[in-house]
Write a structure and sequence with these properties.
Length: 192
């Protein structure tokens, strides 16, 4: 029997992977190594934000957190623009490290805000069963969303965002495969 999942733990796992990847990025030797880690950072930040928007954020109002959804989506829009900029900046460019760092630090500021306030409130509002349901929806969303930032895509959390994300996800996988993008392993893994 599969044990119950905790939505806050699954969201924080993504945040912790980005923290770990960023430490690895800063410690990396050479542009090639940093580029592979940056590819992974870009993928993880993109997937995380989209998955939250089409799953967990849609449930926030039910748990007294409706007032933060708009704020979070605005921060996500800012993060998407920065992640997109990191994605299209060549690793050989002089400002590459700064562009990646700006995207990651903005993501981590948002993650810290979520953890300190919103996720603690959510944890106190949901039953174990609801937390498990939300966690499973979040993890299912992670498998369906784009792996690269698309700042011009819908950000409604509804059908339009899901449809655009599904199409973009296929394109992203092709771009990553044909472009020969490499990725590093993640330190923390979601359950299967």
């Amino acid at each position: 029997m599969v044990s119950q999942l905790n939505v806050v733990d699954e969201i924080k796992l993504d945040h912790n992977n980005v923290r770990d990847l960023f430490e690895r990025f800063k410690a990396a030797h050479g542009k090639d190594e940093r580029a592979v880690i940056a590819n992974t950072l870009i993928r993880e930040m993109s997937v995380h934000g989209e998955a939250e928007e089409i799953s967990v954020y849609n449930e926030f109002p039910k748990y007294g957190l409706g007032d933060v959804v708009g704020h979070n989506k605005q921060e996500h829009a800012d993060i998407k623009r920065l992640v997109y900029e990191a994605d299209v900046t060549p690793a050989s460019h002089d400002s590459y490290d700064d562009v990646v760092t700006r995207a990651v630090t903005t993501f981590l500021e948002h993650a810290g805000e979520e953890e300190a306030d919103q996720l603690a409130k959510l944890q106190n509002q949901v039953s174990a069963e609801e937390s498990d349901r939300l966690a499973r929806e979040f993890l299912a969303a992670r498998r369906k969303v784009p792996t690269r930032a698309h700042p011009a895509a819908p950000q409604t959390g509804g059908a339009a965002q899901k449809a655009a994300g599904g199409a973009a996800s296929l394109v992203d996988k092709a771009v990553e495969s044909l472009g020969g993008r490499e990725f590093v392993d993640l330190k923390y893994q979601h359950p299967e």
